[in-house]
Amino acid sequence: MSLSPQQKTAGWLVGVAVTMGALSFAAVPFYDWFCRVTGFGGTTAVSATGSDTVLERSVLIRFDASREAGMPWSFKPQQTEMRVKIGETGLAFYEAHNPTDRTVAGTASYNVTPDAAGGYFTKIECFCFTEQVLAPGETAIMPVTFFVDPEIVKDREGKYVREITLSYTFHETPLPENQAALAVPAQAGAVN
Predict the structure, then answer these.
(1) Is 94 within 8 Å of 74 (Cβ atoms)?
(2) CATH of 42-180, one of 3.40.50.2000, 2.30.30.240, 3.40.50.12280, 2.60.370.10
(3) For the chain, which residues make up each domain, given as ranges?
(4) What is the pLDDT of residue 18?
(5) Which of 6, 18, 118, 192 shows the smallest number of beta carbons within 10 Å?
(6) 90-97 and 74-77 as β-strands: parallel, antiparallel, unpaired?
């Protein structure tokens, strides 16, 4: 049984469509992996411990905060900048406040500029690693512990970095199930 030219062409086009669909599906996790490995797009590194080496050269770290449209919290850094030696562990704090009369959950996305510093800006602990939940009127002081990897001075572009900006954007997220279940009866009781 041989296939006609139209059947071969149709089979080939289906194969191309399936391949393109599979590649587009794999693109998001691949891009995420690529950014984490290379620091592309200001993606930071993560470490369980601080650096073993501290250089005499220092870098100015600036802190920035914003909110996604519709996120009701106020959100700001407690310090706008700090100078740290390359390899030295730094500790900075951000403040979030929920001025609403409802519990709100949020997750912070982040990036570092310039891009050349992304792979060398290393977080040890960060509020951005987990979802944050604030009750009505609650304020949270949230730490970020970090260092700038001494390998930055060997990088072709990174060695020229003198200032780094760490930016966070908070996004409202659905409440965790256990807290959402508690919020529903409270809202239902208020309606009755």
Answers:
(1) no
(2) 2.60.370.10
(3) 1-38, 42-180
(4) 73
(5) 192
(6) antiparallel
Neighbours of 26 (CB within 10 A): 10
The residue count of the chain comes to 192
Alpha-carbon distance of 184 to 46, in angstroms, equals: 37
Cα within 13 Å of Cα(168), Cβ side:
24
69-105 burial, b if ≥16 CB within 10 A, otherwise e? eebebebebeeeeeebbbbbbbebebebebeeeebbb
Split at pLDDT 50, 70, 90, the class of 32 is: very low
Structure pTM? 0.70
Concatenated DSSP letters of 166-184: EEEEEEEEPPPHHHHHHHH
Q: Cα separation of 53 and 163, whole Å?
A: 20
Please give the Cα distance from 150 to 125 (Å, whole number).
Answer: 19
pLDDT confidence of residue 183: 58
